[in-house]
């Protein structure tokens, strides 16, 4: 396992740790808002955008010759975690995967008909659900199909990642994934406290995660990410700090520390969680404070929102270079890729369009069986959408925005174009969330925690009642 990291961020004068803990200010701004994995957000996707529109968008994308990023959604889970809000199918019937893989093969063929497949596949991500629901042979079959239709890469700089449930993987699984070309792993942990694990129906001893991480390091996987969640039932600031101490000892390259959104009306498994066992708003804020203080003291860079990375990880490097991007998997180090989503509920992002597949497995398979792309809805972006997407993405990735660069790129007067936005940010500037000077916007340390709120000022499509649609910012 790599040696522990140290950086200037661990110094006592770290401005983030010193400035961020104004609880009243955080609570005042902690309303609901989008995560901006896309702009416009999925709420703006329209059913009038059809499979034919998506085909046309794929064909237009060939003109740019941008590299490809492939996302494959594997919706199956053997067990339901009560907190989960993902599109999933709980089953122990592994035979279901065979027909699903056949559908994926057909979808790949339909998609590839519209693509210049000489475009390199720089990124590959398998998510879910639980991708390790598949057998080793099924994983091989899926990689073979992806390679046959799109041509996978052996470039050492490729970013081929898969989400792993440590309860359903072992050393043989990791060796097989490495042989298939994966070089990055994301392991779901959520919390190491047995009482919390019991409350969310996810028993997972530390030894499972640690064994897999040790083997992944020995095999030479380039980057390991661990997912944690704060705000779960039975959690306290002290118990979560104990989990963080153990995680820091494991020393992953990246960490995603998500804020649990309790929305039982939308996600039925969450109804198994007792409201009385959920931490209070103040306790959750204490967990967030503990997270940032402990991780930055351990040398991690706070990339933004819920992402942390070691300074030598590709995410931190991309942020320093100004090439970080956001997509439906969060922050990404591979900018300027066209993202092709495959499988039920998957979303594609092309240069000027988004398209989302059917979220119901039966509808998805019916469309594919009829020889059609499984597009449920989407949107083609207008020029204003493209300009605002650029501004939001740069603000969320760089924690700053240069209006002069925006003006030059889009041939506009950006300060005039975003006059109403700058007016809307006046209170946030007064409250110390952002510093606006002439043509430059700089997010402050406390503003990093509320970056979703700052981005909302640029959103021309935000619903009037955002709280009905989105999770809380912190």
Automatic annotation (TrEMBL):
<dbReference type="InterPro" id="IPR006638">
    <property type="entry name" value="Elp3/MiaA/NifB-like_rSAM"/>
</dbReference>
<comment type="pathway">
    <text>Porphyrin-containing compound metabolism; protoporphyrin-IX biosynthesis; protoporphyrinogen-IX from coproporphyrinogen-III (AdoMet route): step 1/1.</text>
</comment>
<keyword id="KW-0627">Porphyrin biosynthesis</keyword>
<dbReference type="Pfam" id="PF06969">
    <property type="entry name" value="HemN_C"/>
</dbReference>
<comment type="similarity">
    <text>Belongs to the anaerobic coproporphyrinogen-III oxidase family.</text>
</comment>
<comment type="function">
    <text>Involved in the heme biosynthesis. Catalyzes the anaerobic oxidative decarboxylation of propionate groups of rings A and B of coproporphyrinogen III to yield the vinyl groups in protoporphyrinogen IX.</text>
</comment>
<keyword id="KW-0479">Metal-binding</keyword>
<dbReference type="InterPro" id="IPR058240">
    <property type="entry name" value="rSAM_sf"/>
</dbReference>
<dbReference type="GO" id="GO:0004109">
    <property type="term" value="F:coproporphyrinogen oxidase activity"/>
</dbReference>
<feature type="binding site">
    <location>
        <begin position="129"/>
        <end position="130"/>
    </location>
    <ligand>
        <name>S-adenosyl-L-methionine 2</name>
    </ligand>
</feature>
<dbReference type="InterPro" id="IPR010723">
    <property type="entry name" value="HemN_C"/>
</dbReference>
<feature type="binding site">
    <location>
        <position position="202"/>
    </location>
    <ligand>
        <name>S-adenosyl-L-methionine 2</name>
    </ligand>
</feature>
<dbReference type="InterPro" id="IPR007197">
    <property type="entry name" value="rSAM"/>
</dbReference>
<dbReference type="GO" id="GO:0051539">
    <property type="term" value="F:4 iron, 4 sulfur cluster binding"/>
</dbReference>
<dbReference type="GO" id="GO:0051989">
    <property type="term" value="F:coproporphyrinogen dehydrogenase activity"/>
</dbReference>
<feature type="binding site">
    <location>
        <position position="227"/>
    </location>
    <ligand>
        <name>S-adenosyl-L-methionine 2</name>
    </ligand>
</feature>
<dbReference type="Pfam" id="PF04055">
    <property type="entry name" value="Radical_SAM"/>
</dbReference>
<feature type="binding site">
    <location>
        <position position="190"/>
    </location>
    <ligand>
        <name>S-adenosyl-L-methionine 2</name>
    </ligand>
</feature>
<dbReference type="InterPro" id="IPR034505">
    <property type="entry name" value="Coproporphyrinogen-III_oxidase"/>
</dbReference>
<feature type="binding site">
    <location>
        <position position="71"/>
    </location>
    <ligand>
        <name>S-adenosyl-L-methionine 1</name>
    </ligand>
</feature>
<feature type="domain" description="Radical SAM core">
    <location>
        <begin position="62"/>
        <end position="298"/>
    </location>
</feature>
<keyword id="KW-0411">Iron-sulfur</keyword>
<feature type="binding site">
    <location>
        <position position="347"/>
    </location>
    <ligand>
        <name>S-adenosyl-L-methionine 1</name>
    </ligand>
</feature>
<dbReference type="GO" id="GO:0005737">
    <property type="term" value="C:cytoplasm"/>
</dbReference>
<feature type="binding site">
    <location>
        <position position="77"/>
    </location>
    <ligand>
        <name>[4Fe-4S] cluster</name>
    </ligand>
</feature>
<comment type="subunit">
    <text>Monomer.</text>
</comment>
<feature type="binding site">
    <location>
        <position position="84"/>
    </location>
    <ligand>
        <name>[4Fe-4S] cluster</name>
    </ligand>
</feature>
<feature type="binding site">
    <location>
        <position position="261"/>
    </location>
    <ligand>
        <name>S-adenosyl-L-methionine 2</name>
    </ligand>
</feature>
<keyword id="KW-0560">Oxidoreductase</keyword>
<feature type="binding site">
    <location>
        <position position="128"/>
    </location>
    <ligand>
        <name>S-adenosyl-L-methionine 1</name>
    </ligand>
</feature>
<protein>
    <recommendedName>
        <fullName>Coproporphyrinogen-III oxidase</fullName>
        <ecNumber>1.3.98.3</ecNumber>
    </recommendedName>
</protein>
<keyword id="KW-0963">Cytoplasm</keyword>
<dbReference type="GO" id="GO:0006782">
    <property type="term" value="P:protoporphyrinogen IX biosynthetic process"/>
</dbReference>
<dbReference type="InterPro" id="IPR013785">
    <property type="entry name" value="Aldolase_TIM"/>
</dbReference>
<keyword id="KW-0004">4Fe-4S</keyword>
<feature type="binding site">
    <location>
        <begin position="83"/>
        <end position="85"/>
    </location>
    <ligand>
        <name>S-adenosyl-L-methionine 2</name>
    </ligand>
</feature>
<dbReference type="GO" id="GO:0046872">
    <property type="term" value="F:metal ion binding"/>
</dbReference>
<keyword id="KW-0408">Iron</keyword>
<feature type="binding site">
    <location>
        <position position="81"/>
    </location>
    <ligand>
        <name>[4Fe-4S] cluster</name>
    </ligand>
</feature>
<feature type="binding site">
    <location>
        <position position="163"/>
    </location>
    <ligand>
        <name>S-adenosyl-L-methionine 1</name>
    </ligand>
</feature>
<dbReference type="InterPro" id="IPR004558">
    <property type="entry name" value="Coprogen_oxidase_HemN"/>
</dbReference>
<keyword id="KW-0949">S-adenosyl-L-methionine</keyword>
